[in-house]
Q: What sequence folds into this?
C-alpha cells in the first residue's frame, strides 16, 4: 500500500513538473485568437494588430480567426470549450459584459468560464446619420424622433454590442423611440448606414471618422466625457443635449478558465509592453484609441464593474433579445 501511494505521488509530481515546464516554454506552437465578431470592425482590426506584435515578441504565429454571430456568443462558446492551455484565446469587448444580463440563456458565464489576461484599448463612439436624414444637430434628431416615434432606425453590429447598447442608452436618456436594426457585424451595419438603408448608427471613432470627414455621413455627437481628439469639432452627447451620457468600446483578451497562471502572466506582460510602446500609442491616438494597461486581477475587477454597469443600462432601457 505504501509503495502504491509513493508511486501515485511520484506520478503526480512528474505531471505537475511537466505542466510547469510546458507553461514556462509557452508558446511552442501557434496560438489562435478567436474574435467573435465580423471582419473589418475594431475588434478584428486590433486583434490582428496585437497578434502581429505578440508573434514578433514570442516567436510563434498568433492566428486570428473571426467567428461572428449571436451577439458574440458563437465565437465565445468555441473558446469556452477549448483546452485551458493558452493556445486558444478570446478577444472580448463590453459586448460580453452586456450579454451577462441581456441574454437570459447562454452556454457560458464570463467570469466563471474565462480568466482575464489583459485589456488592450478603448475608444469613443460617434453618432452619425445618413445625409438624407433632415437633421443638423443632436437636438434636431431628438425632435424628429419625438415627432415620428418608431420611424427612425439605428443599426448595430448585433444584440448586446456597444453600438446596440449606446443606442438603447440614448433612447432611454433622451426619451425617444427609434427602431434597432441588428446586423451580423459592424461592416454590414456601416454599409447600410452609408447607403441610406438605415438612418443612423453609433460606431467607433476609429472606423467611422474617415466617413464623417468625407461627408458620407453626418457626425452629430461623440460619446466620451470629453471631445474626441480625432473629431474635436463634434460635441459630446452631453454637450449636445443628453447630459451625463457616456459610452465607449473597450477590447481585451481572456482565456479558458484553468489556463496556467504563468501563461496568463506572460501574456499580460507582453501585451502591457506592446500597448506602452511609443509608436503604438502614437498610431492609436491618430485613430482615436487609447491604450489600457492592467494586471490580470485589475482587469477582472474592471470586467466585474462593467457587468454591473451594463446590467443597470439593460434594466432602465428595457433592451431585450429573443433568446
A:
Amino acid at each position: 500500500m505504501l509503495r502504491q501511494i509513493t508511486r501515485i505521488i511520484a506520478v503526480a509530481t512528474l505531471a505537475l513538473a511537466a505542466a510547469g515546464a510546458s507553461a514556462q516554454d509557452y508558446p511552442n506552437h501557434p496560438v489562435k485568437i478567436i474574435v467573435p465578431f465580423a471582419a473589418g470592425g475594431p475588434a478584428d482590426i486590433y486583434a490582428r494588430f496585437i497578434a502581429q506584435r505578440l508573434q514578433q515578441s514570442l516567436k510563434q504565429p498568433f492566428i486570428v480567426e473571426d467567428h461572428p454571430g449571436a451577439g458574440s456568443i458563437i465565437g465565445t462558446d468555441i473558446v469556452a470549450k477549448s483546452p485551458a492551455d493558452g493556445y486558444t484565446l478570446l478577444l472580448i469587448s463590453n459586448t460580453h459584459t452586456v450579454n451577462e444580463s441581456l441574454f437570459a440563456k447562454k452556454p457560458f458565464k464570463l467570469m466563471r468560464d474565462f480568466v482575464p489576461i489583459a485589456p488592450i484599448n478603448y475608444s469613443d463612439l460617434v453618432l452619425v446619420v445618413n445625409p438624407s436624414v433632415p437633421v443638423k444637430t443632436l437636438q434636431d434628431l431628438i425632435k424628429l424622433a419625438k415627432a415620428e416615434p418608431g420611424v427612425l432606425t439605428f443599426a448595430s453590429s448585433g444584440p448586446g454590442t456597444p453600438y446596440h447598447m449606446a443606442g438603447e442608452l440614448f433612447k432611454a436618456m433622451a426619451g425617444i423611440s427609434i427602431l434597432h436594426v441588428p446586423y451580423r457585424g459592424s461592416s454590414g451595419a456601416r454599409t447600410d448606414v452609408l447607403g441610406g438603408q438605415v438612418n443612423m448608427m453609433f460606431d467607433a471613432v476609429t472606423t467611422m471618422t474617415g466617413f464623417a470627414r468625407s461627408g458620407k455621413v453626418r457626425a452629430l455627437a461623440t460619446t466620451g466625457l470629453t471631445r474626441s481628439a480625432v473629431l474635436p469639432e463634434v460635441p459630446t452627447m452631453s454637450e449636445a443635449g443628453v447630459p451625463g451620457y457616456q459610452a465607449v468600446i473597450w477590447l481585451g483578451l481572456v482565456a479558458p478558465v484553468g489556463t496556467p497562471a504563468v501563461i496568463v502572466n506572460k501574456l499580460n506582460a507582453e501585451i502591457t509592453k506592446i500597448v506602452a510602446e511609443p509608436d503604438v500609442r502614437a498610431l492609436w491616438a491618430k485613430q482615436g484609441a487609447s491604450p489600457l494597461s492592467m494586471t490580470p486581477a485589475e482587469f477582472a475587477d474592471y470586467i466585474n464593474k462593467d457587468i454591473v454597469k451594463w446590467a443597470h443600462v439593460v434594466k432602465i432601457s428595457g433592451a431585450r433579445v429573443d433568446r
